[in-house]
Amino acid sequence: MVMQKILKGSKTEANLMAAFAGESQARNKYTFYGAKAKADGFEQIGNLFLETANNEKEHAEIWFKLLHNGMPATGENLMEAAGGERYEYETMYPTFAKEAREEGFTKIAALFELVAKIEKEHMERYETLKANVDNGTVFKKQESVTWICLNCGHVYEGAQPPQVCPVCEKPQSWFQVKAENY
């Protein structure tokens, strides 16, 4: 019988977490740098920053999958995401705002408070989406709605979109309820 190593609590787990965090931060930083390089008139440099940012994303995904024994299911991801947003909304940003205000950084405190409200919206969105997944209502509504194919733009009226887009043949997963809030 082969003994399987346990990652939880190991130095390797800590290293994977640090690698994931580092690659994730580098990706964002390089995305910002790429946009700035392009704004400064350096298209090639901007593109190379963006290419590297995509490489860093791939590295982060490798470490993430090792930490989670693969990629968790969408329902789990929605629940975890809602929990993270809840923490940011209820604990992290209020604490940061309080500390910034105590140190005299009132504008930064106000920004922390405004972002906390956005995190609440994110939390509520993920919770609603999780309920839709659990209830089987992502692609099945109680009344007729307008659906749009995210690939080709085909519009369809009904309680649920077609199984396959009749125009581009993308599966039902490419449809969403059409937003007309503009």
Automatic annotation (TrEMBL):
SUPFAM superfamilies: Ferritin-like, Rubredoxin-like. Keywords: Electron transport, Iron, Metal-binding, Transport. Signal peptide: none annotated. It comes from the Bacteria. It comes from Anaerotruncus colihominis DSM 17241. InterPro entries: Ferritin-like (IPR012347), Ferritin-like_diiron (IPR009040), Ferritin-like_SF (IPR009078), Rr_diiron-bd_dom (IPR003251), Rubredoxin-like_dom (IPR024934), Rubrerythrin (IPR052364), RUBY_RBDX (IPR048574). Its cofactor is Fe(3+). One of its GO terms (molecular function) is iron ion binding. This is Rubredoxin. The keyword Iron applies. PROSITE patterns: FERRITIN_LIKE, RUBREDOXIN_LIKE. The keyword Iron applies. The lineage of its organism: Bacteria, Bacillati, Bacillota, Clostridia, Eubacteriales. It holds the Pfam family RUBY_RBDX. Residues 144-178 form the Rubredoxin-like domain. Residues 6-137 form the Ferritin-like diiron domain.
